[in-house]
């Protein structure tokens, strides 16, 4: 059966690498269209994410051991080599000879003439223990942690001595985390009940709302999930909604809200007694907000299609606002390792202008004494603190309120009290700021 899993993984990789599909979506589609056992599903996920995660290093190895330059290798054959090199160098579940012979079989189906070439390259990769000579510390980090050099330089320029920790964090296997709907059940109770049901679960350490599933199977089919007591959410994302301090009768606008992870949290924290206007620019995504609100049985969410760049005058001064802005997503590489290969410095440079335009509209909805929470899931000061500093300079009626989440090794507090969350196994890289209208 593992052979079938490898074939599915290969097809998925091709969709991502050659057709520009997003890794999480391509993988979900692939897994839902085939009938595979749990072990094989796990293998597909491992092969796809692992290959994308280690691609820089893998390509280097293939280039060293191939007589044909990488750019000239037929696309499908290149993906076979990449996926197989990943197994040879990073997994020990499958013996090397089996990996090579499976790869040769797959290659033969693509083009019988390349089978010998694939065999030769992979045998050579198997024996290759070369440690390349690095011209700098950054080059070493790029190779060892498998990131494009420009991205390592970006982290090093902006996060200095924390660079290696960021690279390691972004390569972590993401833990399975859920937010407890404390409107209906306490976290302690969920933990107790899950333990009774045979799960191993722990509380998250920064957010008081999260649990981490450490073992015992998939909670998605558990009654807690289907009955709306739990929401899949990263721990970092659980930190945004509480900053709005939602109360009964309040009005909250979540301007970029799909799939509604934070909007539903706002509703829960208000006792589901507030209006939560949850907008997004994509029609298809509005459905996901409604589905999530429905599963959680929340009545206060009003999901709708709206471009956050277009002001809605009827709502000026209406309440408090969450702007969880579209961003470069460098903080979520653990879950979307394709970001390592798809983002460019130019793309990063273009984002602050868009984000500032959205902030400029978002401020209009904030009432006196109300709050604007600006957050992103990226590690890039120009999309994060520099945007917020620009905003405060241009809007003297707003002031930053210090966020206090306690001392945790991966939380960086700026002088103004903004927070950058460095990635760990349980937390995405994230940025949070809280701006109050005087
Ligand atoms: C970081 S995600 C939001 C995640 C969401 N807040 C949550 O917690 O589930 C950013 C969202 O912004 C949406 N978006 C991008 N540009 C937008 C715009 N101009 N107006 C409204 N939404 C936009 C995207 O479709 C995406 O769903």
UniProtKB/TrEMBL annotation:
GO biological process terms, alphabetically, are:
regulation of DNA-templated transcription
Q: Which reaction does it catalyse?
A: cytidine(967) in 16S rRNA + S-adenosyl-L-methionine = 5-methylcytidine(967) in 16S rRNA + S-adenosyl-L-homocysteine + H(+)
Q: Which UniProt keywords apply?
A: Cytoplasm, Methyltransferase, RNA-binding, rRNA processing, S-adenosyl-L-methionine, Transferase
Domain SAM-dependent MTase RsmB/NOP-type residue range list: 166-438
UniProt-annotated location(s): Cytoplasm
List the active-site residues: 377
Q: Does the keyword Methyltransferase apply?
A: yes
**Hey, which family's this protein in?**
Belongs to the class I-like SAM-binding methyltransferase superfamily. RsmB/NOP family.
Question: Which terms does the record give in the GO molecular function aspect?
Answer: RNA binding; rRNA methyltransferase activity
For this protein, what is the EC number?
2.1.1.176
Q: What is this protein called?
A: 16S rRNA (cytosine(967)-C(5))-methyltransferase
Provide the top EC class.
Answer: transferase
Kindly list the GO CC terms recorded for this protein.
Answer: cytoplasm
Question: What's its job?
Answer: Specifically methylates the cytosine at position 967 (m5C967) of 16S rRNA.
Q: Which Pfam families match?
A: Methyltr_RsmB-F, NusB, RsmF-B_ferredox
Q: Where does S-adenosyl-L-methionine bind?
A: 256-262, 280, 307, 324
């Amino acid at each position: 059966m593992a052979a079938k899993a490898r074939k599915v993984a290969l097809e998925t990789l091709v969709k991502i690498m050659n057709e520009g599909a997003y890794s999480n979506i391509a993988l979900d589609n692939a897994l839902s269209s085939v009938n595979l056992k749990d072990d094989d599903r796990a293998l597909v996920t491992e092969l796809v994410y692992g290959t994308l995660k280690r691609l820089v290093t893998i390509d280097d190895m293939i280039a060293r051991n191939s007589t044909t330059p990488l750019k000239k290798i037929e696309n499908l054959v290149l993906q076979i080599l990449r996926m197989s090199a990943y197994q040879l160098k990073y997994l020990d579940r499958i013996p090397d000879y089996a990996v090579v012979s499976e790869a040769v079989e797959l290659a033969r189906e693509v083009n019988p003439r390349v089978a010998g070439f694939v065999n030769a390259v992979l045998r050579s990769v198997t024996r290759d223990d070369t440690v390349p000579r690095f011209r700098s510390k950054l080059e070493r980090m790029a190779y060892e942690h498998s990131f494009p050099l420009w991205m390592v330089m970006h982290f090093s320029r902006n996060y200095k001595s924390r660079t290696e920790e960021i690279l390691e964090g972004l390569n972590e296997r993401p833990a399975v985390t859920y937010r407890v709907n404390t409107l209906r059940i306490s976290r302690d109770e969920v933990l107790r009940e899950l333990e009774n049901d045979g799960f191993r679960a722990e509380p998250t350490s920064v957010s008081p709302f999260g649990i981490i599933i450490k073992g015992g199977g998939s909670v998605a089919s558990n009654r807690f999930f289907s009955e709306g007591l739990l929401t899949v959410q990263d721990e970092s994302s659980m930190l945004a909604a509480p900053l709005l301090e939602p109360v009964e009768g309040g009005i909250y606008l979540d301007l970029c809200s799909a799939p509604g992870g934070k909007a539903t949290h706002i509703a829960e924290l208000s006792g589901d007694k507030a209006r939560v206007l949850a907008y997004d620019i994509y029609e298809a995504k509005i459905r996901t907000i409604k589905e999530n609100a429905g599963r959680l049985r929340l009545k206060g969410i009003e999901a709708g299609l709206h471009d956050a760049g277009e002001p809605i005058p009827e709502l000026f001064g209406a309440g408090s606002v969450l702007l969880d802005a579209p961003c470069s997503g460098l903080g979520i590489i653990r879950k979307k390792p394709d970001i390592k290969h798809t983002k460019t410095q130019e793309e990063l440079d273009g984002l602050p202008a868009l984000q500032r335009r959205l902030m400029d509209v978002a401020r209009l909805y904030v009432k006196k004494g109300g709050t604007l929470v600006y957050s992103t899931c990226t590690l890039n000061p120009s999309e994060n603190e520099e945007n917020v500093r620009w905003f405060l300079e241009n809007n003297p009626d707003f002031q930053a309120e210090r966020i206090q989440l306690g001392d945790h090794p991966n939380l960086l507090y700026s002088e103004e009290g903004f927070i950058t969350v460095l990635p760990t196994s349980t937390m995405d890289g994230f940025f949070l700021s809280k701006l109050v209208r005087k």
